[in-house]
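Lest this sound abstract, we let one protein speak, letters for residues, whole numbers for local backbone shapes, and leave readers to judge:
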Amino acid sequence: MSNSTPNILMFHCHDLGRYLGCYGRDIETPNIDAIAESGVLFENHYATAPQCSPSRGSRMTGRYPHVNGLIGLAHDGWMLNADEVTLPAYLNRCGYETHLFGLQHVADDPDRLGFDRIHSGRSLSPAVLPTIQKVNRARNVAASLESFFESGAFDAPFFISAGVFEAHRLKPADGSGFDDPSYVSDDPDTIDPPAFLPDEPVVRKELAAMHGMIHAVDDAVGTITRALEAAGIDEETLVVFTTEHGIAFPRAKGSCYDPGIEAALIMQYPSVIDGGVRCEELISNIDLVPTLLDLLEEPIPERIEGQSFLSLLTGKTYHPREQLFAEITWHDHYVPVRAIRTSEYKYLRSFWHLPRVYIPNDVYTSAVGRELHDLQSGQRPYEELYDLNADPHEQTNLIDHPEYQHVRIQLRERLGHWMEQTDDPLLDGPVFPADYDEILPEHTD
């Protein structure tokens, strides 16, 4: 790895998981695939949370949601703790000029994130969200970046966070939520649904519509990479393509099963990172901040909970993760779940009476959510254990299986130790909503 200081461009999406051609899905994403072919793709990169703001907050701070404070959605009153340091702030200290284009969804006030320049809408309030969604469409974010690079109005080194709205559902109460004339859907008859979803017409139709959004994301990536080349800075720019959690379908978004916490991570740094590399090691999205600091030969603060994977890219000795952790606490409902995943097993623990499968409102009110609503019937077990080699789609709960009791005990102890070590608020009982002070009735003596 060269010691030169690269520009860094991080492109990130909504609700897309690993639903990309280069990850083996049945969709053409040639521009994203090209980045993977000339860079490194991480096969087992996972988010700390199966929902937007908590996952993005971890990517921004290198810390777990219940540690940095962002355990629910930013527009619902949850926020980073006052002392949290973000990736732009770290990079500012390293001499970077930092820019925000498009979506962030980590803070209601983007000034909190520490960017030098904000090139996008500033508020997350419900009243302006429809306008912000249009500004943050992939084609608009890409056009803004193209103009930015053409203008040359930037200093190197720069860090750019470029976030796009796709593939979030648009109109959850009207059709699939992916329907929009500006996107070109694929033919439902050509769709091969992921194994965790039933092969039914409504599933195919909605996946085909979601394909239209993903094609728009891929087109935007092509626009941006060509703009980097035209500006003559592609060789000195580290491009990071990533996502924050799984697709907006039942048993994915909002779920700590693998389809909910899976996330893409692709990194391209021409002439520095070898092309066509696919890493199978477990990676968490809290690992990105320490890796970038390590790349810049900056000390990694002790408070950062992720670990650098730079040595995976340099060929030096790498000590792989034995496990990673995931969590959800608040979304549109209270869903307190904690999970630990190794390369072989997944253990989940629920801390409330929950439906068998929690389905977020934007998915539940869609056609596929209404069709598959029976997934929620029944009560979720408080403990779940899955053998990921024998059962990669996490269908058979082995929690009471005699042959797996040693695994159950070991992973339960590891999860408990992590919760204690990180002072997880669930250990003290239920976590109140962010607006609890507003809804708490007045008490009289």
Observations:
- The CA atoms of residues 345 and 388 lie 5 Å apart.
